[in-house]
Design a protein that fits this description.
The chain is of the alpha+beta class. 22% of the residues lie in helices and 23% in strands.
Length: 323
Amino acid sequence: MKKKNSHLRPGDLVEVKTPSEIAATLDDAGTVDQLPLMREMVEYCGRRFRVSRRVLKICASGTKSGFFLGKFRTDDVVLLEQLRCSGADHDGCQKACAIFWRESWLRKVEEGTPPSVVQPIAAEQLRARLKTSVGPNTYFCQASELLRASKKFTRFERCSLKWCFSEVRAGNCTPLEMAQRMAIFVFWKIRWLMFGHYGRGKTKSTPRETLNLHPGELVEIKPIESIFKTLDHHANNRGLWFSPNMRLLCGDRRRVERRIEKLIVDGTGEMRQLDNTVFLEGSHCGCAHIAFGGCARNEFVYWREIWLRRSEKSAEKAGLSRS
């Protein structure tokens, strides 16, 4: 039986409940309202974290129906600070999704109170009942079930001020931050209606480049004019979109966070292969340019290697290591 919504807020200290307590909330599929508890989450049982935000809106891209914007059917989902999925139990998926937590899996605690004791046997029993796939090359996780666990917004709801006010009331942002997000959305919406996709190129067969970048390498993001030459008229390079917010980093130097070679697709569970693509440190999608008021997922931005160049320091270091 589910407990009533505890209305956790950003900054609240919470403890992930014990495996036995969480197991009692799950249905036969290992979900609550179709949102799965994943095996990667079991290791956090008994540990404490701060709530980073309430999840009021979510978006997804790359789905069969295109861009998705909606909400979970129940208002009881939060994100915890710094927690992302490792993909270890899903064939090494490298998407690094922010993990969604039902409030029924958490308890609010005070500083200094003794932590709960987690029995290793109970943790293994919980892991054993959680499935990770539903067929060959088709996985079962929060990303795969995202559309089933949520409700798509109507056209009216997509631009409703209600959600913007709710984000402020929930403590997810300040009124000024929300006003900035709304202004960003309106600007890019008008621009798209007048001129089409930002960054639209003229190349039908978009080029690729292999740099074989590794985590920790320092790279420079190419000027926007150079990147435009690699895009088609939908602003894609081999199906990967160069989003308007990415232009803000052009000319900057960033370190490579990780290579991204395979990921589970939102809504389908299919494992998709990528090449010549990386994540950069501190490069996340705010979604304000495509979702009115933004959304909660804070996904990594995908960078094609052809949009980057090694910085002089990294190039010199690579040359020394080869000599």
